[in-house]
Amino acid sequence: MTARSRSIVSRQTGPHEDLSRRVVRALTNPLRKPIAEHTREAFAWARDWLDNRDGAPLILDAGCGVGLSTRRLAEQHPATAVIGVDRSADRLARDHGRLPDNALLVRADLIDFWRLALAEGWRPARHFLLYPNPYPKTAHLKMRWQGHPVLPVILALGGRLELRSNWRLYVEEFALAVTQATGVAAAAAPFTPGEACLTPFEQKYHASGQALWRLVVELPHDPGLVPGDPQPGVGEGK
Ligand SMILES: C[S@@+](CC[C@H](N)C(=O)[O-])C[C@H]1O[C@@H](n2cnc3c(N)ncnc32)[C@H](O)[C@@H]1O
After folding, report:
1. Which of 71, 82, 86 to mutate for ligand 1's pocket (most ligand atoms within 8 Å of CB)?
2. The domain 19-223: what is its CATH number?
3. Which reaction is this enzyme known to catalyze (predicted)?
4. pTM score
5. Is the pLDDT of residue 235 over 50?
6. Where are the domains of the chain?
């Protein structure tokens, strides 16, 4: 990682004008994408692992990249069970030493993994979205988590949800979407990492002198946020 990471460049100067409409759409139109078999298998593996953690509170590290944050969270919170999820086999395969016993890295698509987790009744105590891909092009709002049809599922899981980004607008948009969808007040706040950064992206942005932003919000577990059947495809054996 170099200390010359570029700041986000976007034509957007404020929250996307379509954000509110996208959130309404996510809250009213069921997400019909079929769940991939490999994520179903990965989830079953994670569920079995979690079932053997004696009811330890769950921390989800969504989009964990190489899994450093998963390791660090597990070390910081030894009485919890920390599951890091990423779709990149390449990132997950990088060797960062032995995983703590209370940590698990899973290769899966979050869009499916989150839905399976909600259907299974998971209630993460904490849920991290650390430096998600920003998709700064205006046309890519629907790929940001706040503009994505899976947003209600992320929120419905509940717990202490923490988003971090080097793009202030991403966090501001996410805050607007959280409040619109749940009625819970949320705001972006500047953030300075302590001595040890939690993730490689945090490290490189911080070392480049970029401002970092975060949102922390406590949400109720509320599967009713998800439109239609909150368990698409579950039990169909596909
Ligand atoms: C910008 S990187 C940040 C990684 C890590 N959190 C960090 O801060 O170093 C975003 C990560 O999200 C993962 N990701 C993006 N969309 C995903 C999805 N639908 N399912 C699983 N992982 C996803 C990418 O593979 C990538 O590792």
Report:
1. 86
2. 3.40.50.150
3. guanosine(46) in tRNA + S-adenosyl-L-methionine = N(7)-methylguanosine(46) in tRNA + S-adenosyl-L-homocysteine
4. 0.93
5. no
6. 19-223
